Amino acid sequence: VVTTYCPANNEPIASVRQGNLEDYEETVKKAKEAWKVWADIPAPKRGEIVRQIGDALRQKIKVLGSLVSLEMGKIFVEGVGEVQEYVDVCDYAVGLSRMIGGPILPSERPGHALIEQWNPVGLVGVITAFNFPVAVYGWNSAIAMICGNVCLWKGAPTTSLVSVAVTKIIAKVLEDNKLPGAICSLVCGGADIGTAMARDERMDLLSFTGSTKVGKQVALMVQERFGRSLLELGGNNAIIVFGDADLNLVIPSALFAAVGTAGQRCTTARRLFLHESIHDEVVAKLAKAYAQVRIGDPWDSDTLYGPLHSKEAVKMFLDAVEQAKQQGGSVVYGGKVINRPGNYVEPTIVTGLPHNASIVHTETFAPILYVLKFKEEEEVFAWNNEVKQGLSSSIFTKDLGRIFRWLGPKGSDCGIVNVNIPTSGAEIGGAFGGEKHTGGGRESGSDSWKLYMRRSTCTINYSKDLPLAQGIKFQ
């Protein structure tokens, strides 16, 4: 049994019974049986079921958003926004259900057709993190479902209520359509369930969202059985501001990217590179903006900044601030725990560190922004890329040549490369994911659907002859 706590006051909310390995085994068997039903349903009909799931989520959007605020700790508008993201992905998946498929390719042999056939992989395991307890499952499940897969979800133990609530909404839609609820299964559990999923050969694809450290272990376990994994891991994201940037865009963008979700997004801005000509001005304006951030209970509609998710996160925050000071940094704003119930810390700005300080290269899941000076474009592009992760990045400039150099082969090496907008707040229509230690996986939009399917190249001979490829004669 796991007790979930409200991060705003550390009061217990509920006790949730966790699944054991016997429960897991039974769930996998039921999911595999459900797949036999689901895979036979035409993709557009599967899309119709996903549309109904989106509508059911729409009807519960405020109450589900409130539950996210209560259990995860993000502010109410972000909790609702997260459910909206799942709804948006459902809408996107409905259209996609009539578009997925491969090309008909020209064959070099007369009387032959060459086609690409896409089929579902089967059972998709989805392991999600506490920071997006609804949306990340939505990205995976909506797309996986229209592709003809069934899903088995393990959410974070600290957001078990959200996992249960979402699953009940989906199960009702499935059962109302006389379909097995096991098409979208849930096992609440800890590392033992996650390890079982990673090692299970019946798990045709495992999507894992979490830390780089755990993601590496998951990847090795999956690879050991030659399985498929989709990894969404850490980010150490940078915003680069050039001397010609519009500061009216820079300040709110940096504020949202660094302070939003109390610094607990994988796309949170953790490094802010400022051209030396504007460094002091931007730091002063940013500190002033930080001072106006409304801190409060996450479910209060006026609040912009809520608590960290756990007591452990508060300790990590304090340790990182201390290390930053020891490595030569100056705390120009924040740096302390806020004296109130819950896991509240001050949003923090640190200046004066070198670009390669070890703490700057460490992803701390907390609202700490390291502000760094630069002189030249070439050096700052290299500094953006020198960290191990490669998730999100953004520059602020009006120079068209610089923008396209940034987007090009010698620019950002990240999966998300932005111009004049923050590092966080991605739209669902694009593929979401990053390079290097971020894991290389892609979810949500574009052609991410291909990761949830297997491809077959099919050659069909409809003639009475048997010509061989490459003109080979074998007679």
From TrEMBL:
<feature type="active site">
    <location>
        <position position="232"/>
    </location>
</feature>
<dbReference type="GO" id="GO:0005739">
    <property type="term" value="C:mitochondrion"/>
</dbReference>
<dbReference type="InterPro" id="IPR016162">
    <property type="entry name" value="Ald_DH_N"/>
</dbReference>
<protein>
    <recommendedName>
        <fullName>Alpha-aminoadipic semialdehyde dehydrogenase</fullName>
        <ecNumber>1.2.1.3</ecNumber>
        <ecNumber>1.2.1.31</ecNumber>
        <ecNumber>1.2.1.8</ecNumber>
    </recommendedName>
</protein>
<keyword id="KW-0539">Nucleus</keyword>
<dbReference type="GO" id="GO:0005634">
    <property type="term" value="C:nucleus"/>
</dbReference>
<keyword id="KW-0963">Cytoplasm</keyword>
<keyword id="KW-0496">Mitochondrion</keyword>
<comment type="pathway">
    <text>Amine and polyamine biosynthesis; betaine biosynthesis via choline pathway; betaine from betaine aldehyde: step 1/1.</text>
</comment>
<comment type="subunit">
    <text>Homotetramer.</text>
</comment>
<keyword id="KW-0809">Transit peptide</keyword>
<dbReference type="InterPro" id="IPR044638">
    <property type="entry name" value="ALDH7A1-like"/>
</dbReference>
<keyword id="KW-0520">NAD</keyword>
<dbReference type="InterPro" id="IPR016163">
    <property type="entry name" value="Ald_DH_C"/>
</dbReference>
<keyword id="KW-0007">Acetylation</keyword>
<dbReference type="GO" id="GO:0004043">
    <property type="term" value="F:L-aminoadipate-semialdehyde dehydrogenase [NAD(P)+] activity"/>
</dbReference>
<dbReference type="InterPro" id="IPR016161">
    <property type="entry name" value="Ald_DH/histidinol_DH"/>
</dbReference>
<keyword id="KW-0560">Oxidoreductase</keyword>
<dbReference type="GO" id="GO:0005829">
    <property type="term" value="C:cytosol"/>
</dbReference>
<dbReference type="InterPro" id="IPR015590">
    <property type="entry name" value="Aldehyde_DH_dom"/>
</dbReference>
<dbReference type="Pfam" id="PF00171">
    <property type="entry name" value="Aldedh"/>
</dbReference>
<feature type="domain" description="Aldehyde dehydrogenase">
    <location>
        <begin position="3"/>
        <end position="455"/>
    </location>
</feature>
<comment type="similarity">
    <text>Belongs to the aldehyde dehydrogenase family.</text>
</comment>
<comment type="function">
    <text>Multifunctional enzyme mediating important protective effects. Metabolizes betaine aldehyde to betaine, an important cellular osmolyte and methyl donor. Protects cells from oxidative stress by metabolizing a number of lipid peroxidation-derived aldehydes. Involved in lysine catabolism.</text>
</comment>
<dbReference type="GO" id="GO:0008802">
    <property type="term" value="F:betaine-aldehyde dehydrogenase (NAD+) activity"/>
</dbReference>
<dbReference type="InterPro" id="IPR029510">
    <property type="entry name" value="Ald_DH_CS_GLU"/>
</dbReference>
